[in-house]
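Hi R.,

As promised on Friday, here is the backbone we talked about, encoded as structure tokens. Could you run it through your design pipeline when you get a chance and send me back a sequence?
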């Protein structure tokens, strides 16, 4: 049973500070096994595209209209793999991340999407403990068990066929709730699986910028609103770079 071809898509808006590290980790820890790596330059005004193009084998495409879901959609339209894996530009892919994606999508034909939690690499140990166990294991995972789907926007993979059936990403959503929207819609066509051991390392810049409590409240409310109202709670958000 052959593994699916996996396209890695990285939306990037003014990510000159992070995109280099992101690509270094992704390239090092996938060992040439990815079908392709696509960086979607989402109307950046800095050197994001220039840095991304300096990496051999990385294709940079441009999405002129700013917006995370529009960048995701551009990646979907450009990618040619059987499974599309999305990470954020401030992430650091751990070893064996690709192994998990390949194994899950090869063994489970009903798997629509796969996602897992973040580990923040630039916060103190006690705050990391609070976020990891307080949010992901005490808060998020029980909710996943109840509703049957969950997805983290900077750490997920989805079958191309499922995205096609979904009609792609909902580009009317600007930011909050977009990941829950993806999971909810994908779950109509298979299992939208959340695997606690399928982690992605990421920066805590939004925690630093907004504060841990405020960020947790906003994300929780946005997720619940999307689950029950089936629409985003708000179009407003702040870019933190």
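Update: got your reply. Pasting your designed sequence below so it's all in one thread:
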């Amino acid at each position: 049973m052959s593994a699916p071809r996996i396209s890695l898509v990285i939306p990037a808006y003014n990510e000159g500070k992070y995109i280099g590290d992101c690509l270094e980790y992704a390239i090092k820890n996938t060992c040439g096994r990815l079908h392709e790596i696509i960086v979607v330059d989402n109307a950046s005004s800095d050197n994001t595209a220039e840095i991304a193009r300096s990496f051999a084998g990385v294709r940079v495409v441009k999405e002129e209209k700013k917006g995370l879901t529009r960048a995701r959609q551009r990646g979907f339209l450009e990618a040619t793999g059987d499974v599309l894996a999305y990470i954020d530009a401030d992430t650091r892919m751990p070893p064996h991340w690709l192994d998990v994606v390949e194994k899950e999508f090869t063994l489970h034909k009903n798997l629509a999407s796969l996602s897992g939690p973040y580990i923040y690499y630039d916060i103190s140990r006690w705050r990391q403990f609070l976020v990891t166990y307080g949010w992901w294991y005490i808060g998020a995972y029980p909710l996943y068990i109840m509703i049957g789907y969950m997805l983290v926007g900077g750490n997920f993979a989805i079958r191309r066929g499922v995205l096609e059936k979904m009609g792609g990403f909902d580009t009317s959503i600007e930011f909050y709730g977009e990941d829950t929207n993806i999971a909810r819609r994908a779950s109509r066509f298979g299992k939208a699986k959340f695997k606690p051991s399928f982690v992605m390392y990421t920066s805590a810049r939004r925690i630093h910028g907004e504060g841990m409590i405020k960020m947790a409240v906003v994300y929780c409310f946005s997720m619940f609103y999307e689950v029950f109202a089936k629409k985003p709670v708000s179009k407003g958000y702040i870019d933190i770079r």
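One thing I noticed while checking it: Residues 7-229 form a domain with the Spore Coat Polysaccharide Biosynthesis Protein SpsA; Chain A fold (CATH 3.90.550.10).

Thanks again,
M.
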